[in-house]
Amino acid sequence: MNYFKRALALSITLSMGVSSVSCAPAENIPVIDDNYRNYYEIFVGSYYDSDGDGTGDLKGITEKLGYIKELGANGLWLTPIMPSNTYHKYDVDDYRQIDPSFGTLEDFDELIKEAHARDIRVVIDLVINHTSDTNEWFKSAVTSVKNGDMDGEYVDYYHFSDEDQGGGWYQVSGTDYYYEADFWSEMPDLNLTNEKVISEIYDIADYWIDRGVDGFRMDAALHYEENDNNKNIEVLKGLYDHCLTKNPGFYMVSEVWASGSVIADYYRSETPSFFNFPASSVEGIIEKTARGFADSGQLVNAVKKFQEDYSANNPNFINAWFLTNHDQVRVANNLMSDEDAVKFAGGLLSTMPGAIYVYYGEEIGMKSSGNEDENKRLPFVWSDDTSSAGMCKKVTGASEVEQNFGSLESQKENENSIYNYYKKALKMRLMNPGIARGSFDIEDGFEDDIAVVKRSYEENDIFVIYNSSADDKEINISDTVLSGKNVSSYLTLDGTEIKSEGEKLVMKGRSICVMK
Ligand code: CA
């Protein structure tokens, strides 16, 4: 959900601060059957348009699975796909259908089948804080209220009151009743204290799990029941436990857009992942490091602190890192379209412990414009030719935004493009399973621009070395944990190789390498 729209409405609670395609050539990338994945967030209507109507669709995503796999993603998060009157679909009319502009249930089944054939897991957005005001449940509830029948079957699916409770409450026309709709009058809040609603949600979950969905991204979980974190945690836990009975490997990642301490509290739900909002966006530690406002030492200490705080309430947690998402100004804007910084941010993200989420278009340094949501969700730039196959049309309200780094097509040709850097970064993560899954132990004895972190996983120790400075740094590794180790992967801005020579390691400016 869009936090800012909500904040305007409430002005409270802000204190926390395919047609099938051939697979990419086989490489020896280990396939590990867990949820520590490189996820790729797709804003469905803006990605790839398979039928030329200007709107991205499910068949389009299926057509691009080869591209997604080659990029190094092995998980997808699809923004809502269910029928809705809005372009963003975060207000559902029917929880068991596909929005006609995105395709059909058959298209969805095909997408799942083709994704699984490539070892790509699919997470869908599940919006249960509210429905659309044109959802049959709400229409029936409103009819009952208007008829004075407060015992009507669906009335308790929502929050109605005969008192105007202020911001976020709207009058049912022609009655003395009000309903809660904290984000927007057309998004009435579901009553998640009603066991019948919970039971409906479990049925909906079963329906999509039976169709092959691997996980849910839980929208707006902080707001399920306003100011009742215990209840919200209970709702998440109940749903997740239910999903595990259907699929023991099921995944859940939730949006709790709040401070680290609130997110730590939500890990009491023992659901695997919450997006690590405090580490995201322009003031988050990753982008701050990429901008040169924090150094490697500050970065790794911040990461370690998050890991400790979150694991305290759920030792099996999978931290969910991202630079930006569909509700935020894009990272290229935050980094003033400084190509080196944009690359380095992607590289740093790729070394985070847990799961990572790349927002479609980040891999080509796409920009947003201003703070309008529509401009954070612009069509993916497949080609310099806007009339070429697959290109989506921008939605009403979006601006024409000139991109600094060119289309995917042009970046593929340039071995030093942002795209090719991202590919290397995601591959480095896949080739070294300890980066996502290993312990996180900071090694002492290095100067602040340099940080060395030991990542132990299944009795393999690897070391991730960071240089946050723009300058090359020569490190004498004799008498350090790196002595005798060799560089196995590296990420440099211009592709220059990093290798150790004897006891000397030269880390290029804003570079990362793995030694083992
Ligand atoms: Ca289409």
Concise account of the structure shown:
Helix content is 29%, strand content 16%. It contains 15 helices and 19 strands. A hairpin with a 2-residue loop joins β17 and β18.
Detail the topology: elements first, then pairings.
Blueprint: H1 3-10, E1 38-42, H2 58-63, H3 65-71, E2 75-78, H4 105-117, E3 121-126, H5 136-146, E4 160-161, E5 169-171, E6 178-180, H6 195-210, E7 215-218, H7 229-246, E8 251-254, H8 260-266, E9 273-274, H9 285-291, H10 296-311, E10 320-322, H11 331-334, H12 339-349, E11 355-359, H13 408-413, H14 418-431, H15 433-437, E12 441-443, E13 450-457, E14 460-467, E15 473-476, E16 487-491, E17 500-501, E18 504-507, E19 511-515
Parallel strand pairs: 1-2, 1-11, 2-3, 3-7, 7-8, 8-9, 10-11
Antiparallel strand pairs: 4-6, 5-6, 12-13, 13-14, 14-19, 15-18, 16-19, 17-18
Helix pairs in contact: 6-7, 8-10, 9-12, 12-14
Q: Which descriptors would you attach to this protein?
A:
single chain, 516 residues, alpha/beta, five-stranded antiparallel beta sheet, 29% helix, 16% strand, globular, disordered N terminus, binds calcium ion
Structural notes for this entry:
By secondary structure, the protein is an alpha/beta fold. Helices cover 29% and strands 16% of the residues. It has helices at 3-10, 58-63, 65-71, 105-117, 136-146, 195-210, 229-246, 260-266, 285-291, 296-311, 331-334, 339-349, 408-413, 418-431, 433-437; strands at 38-42, 75-78, 121-126, 160-161, 169-171, 178-180, 215-218, 251-254, 273-274, 320-322, 355-359, 441-443, 450-457, 460-467, 473-476, 487-491, 500-501, 504-507, 511-515. It has an 8-stranded parallel sheet. Strand 2 (75-78), helix 4 (105-117) and strand 3 (121-126) form a beta-alpha-beta unit. Helix 6 packs parallel to helix 7, helix 9 (285-291) runs antiparallel to helix 12 and helix 12 (339-349) packs parallel to helix 14 (418-431). The protein is globular, with a radius of gyration of 23 Å. The two termini are 42 Å apart. Calcium ion is lined by residues 49-51, 53, 55, 57.
